[in-house]
Amino acid sequence: MRHHLAGAAACALAIFNAQAADPQRAAWVTAERIRHADTEPQNWLITGHDYSDQRFSPLKSINDGNVGQLHLAWYYDLDTHRGQEATPVVVDGVMYSTSAWSKVQAFEAATGRLLWQFDPHVPGSIAIHVCCDLVNRGVAVWMGRLYVATLDGRLISLDAQTGKPLWSVATTDPTRPYAITGAPLATGGRIIIGNAGAEYGVRGYVSAYDALTGKLLWRFYTVPGDPAKGFENEALARAAKTWSGEWWKDGGGGTVWNSLSYDPELDLVYFGTGNGSPWGRKPGEGSKGDSLYAASILALHAASGAYAWHYQTTPADEWDYDSDQTVALATLNIAGKARKVLMQANKNGFFYVLDRATGELLSAKNFVPVNWASGVDPKTGRPQVLPQARYAYTGGLWVGSPGGLGAHNWMPASFSPATGLEYIPAQELPFPFLTDKEFKPVELGVNMAIDLAATSLPQDPKTKAQVLAGLKGYLLAWDPVAQREVWRVTYRGPWNGGLLSTAGNLVFQGSAAGEFAAYRASDGRKLWSFAAQTGVVAAPMTFAVGAKQYVTVLAGWGGAFPLVAGELSFKSGRQVNRSRVLTFALEGTAQLPAASPLSEPRLAAPSVPPEPTLAAEGAKQYALRCGSCHGDAAVSGGLVPDLRYSAALVNDALWKAVVEDGAHEANGMVSFKPEATHAQLEAVRAFLIQRAQQSALAARAAKAR
Ligand code: CA
User: Fold this and answer.
1) CA–CA separation, 490 vs 40, rounded Å?
2) Ligand 1: distance of its center to the CA of 132 in Å?
3) pLDDT of res. 20
4) Do 368 and 510 belong together in one domain?
């Protein structure tokens, strides 16, 4: 028996060594390769380029001298028409990417020839539990395998050569409103993944799985659970002291829904956490203390998942100031000393530089105008919150900057060691906050204790004007040592794409208005641009095949802004979704087909005005259950049907089929019957008819002018 086991072990070792010694195998990415990613600049091995998540490439054959000659080399039309947020990975001439609905593609990187596509068949009903579009941000690659996390919470391992699944594990409880949009991170033989859902009342965590078997290795919850069940570790016992009331009944939030970064020398994994759940509560209802570790940056020991340190960017968050933005690692010269730092342009408007070994705050400065805090106290590391910003305590409506969509949302920033600058997709997007005094958690809809109906903009023309005037979007080049702006490029409005910087003294960014452009990294001068025919939100990447350098970006308008902001989203440039992979090279000769013009819905408004009190109740129900996809005040940002022009408004059978019986569940429109009463849904219909009539009047008035 002993002999047999020893033989098996020796055999396993031999297989392992044979595999490790065979670099010719497809997608044979190891920790060593990722650690030394700069020695193989032709590849882009993980979504953030390397473990530091700097999104900087040492390639420079495309540079500030010749980028004007950049042309489309190939494009591929994706088969999903929602936001595209993935950054592809390229390993040895093969590109691996993902698209909406968690689909995975492999392309020949130089030509765009599709090698295979994998569809995890995510059920359409998940859409109701996804706050911010049906997006996916990319794959992890590890020793011949790919890893994708799906909207419905699965982590799936695929054979990189064939796209065939090898294993699949449920990383979340399918009965709870979890979702996953982020890319997994491969460190050693571990695949680490978080999840989303703090807007719907879940408890956030990150998990590590064995890359070969899918076995759960460790899990770290970011917020404490029910004290009666005991805390999982000391860090959570300490965190529990900063909560009050019965927070665990509403999940607690603190979800890890975006990218992770990793320091192989310290063996620490870094990530940010989202808002506590729910947010905007009345005083004494769960957010009396700091609500750790929500709205924080955390470091965990990668081997064990044990807590290393935390830094809370927004204690007792009431504004949806998730801290899930890109966490970039770099060595900066600060006060004459080389410091290993971590940097983040936070949703709350402050740029943080922390010592990444200890979590010590080195500096923090606002990179956009903010009105919720006067600064960050360098001694305590805490924000100096202005009293008027605590709207839950004052009880009044307060227009906060940044608003809930943040000064920097999920779009990746990029740090260039060549210029020493961080390139930030910055925005100004104020939001009216008002506590919902009658807040009750709902299953189908958003669980934010703010009065969404009262803050719906057309209800209040003065606030609407204030918010509209404040909408801005720009590419910001930021000096993280001096904590100051170096240059900016202004866009039409917010919600522009993620960043790539290169050793060719270039920065690439797509815009909400559908332009993909290259800027000189040192001074921001625009050197080249391309009409992408749709808003670009994803971050570009670059690679080479042979001596030829390519730049790739996924085009495809989407995300929270066009879903929730309604009419406001038009400020950035009204877009339709055309989902494509676009790849550029200096000798490119491809051309996009001509785009058909945007067609306006023309259905006439119903003639009979609804009963005003019914429509008012409908406005509340709409804001709670419908507005996070169909847009503020029932104005669609272009991704989902505009309900003001729905044929169902005056067709009882169609209305019942879609809203009560879930006829369009495969597209994400579930039945609301289990959750809302028939009367509540009829009130929604009355509100939509009112909005259709108001919009028709406004259109006639505009025409008359
Ligand atoms: Ca959030």
Assistant:
1) 34
2) 9
3) 43
4) yes
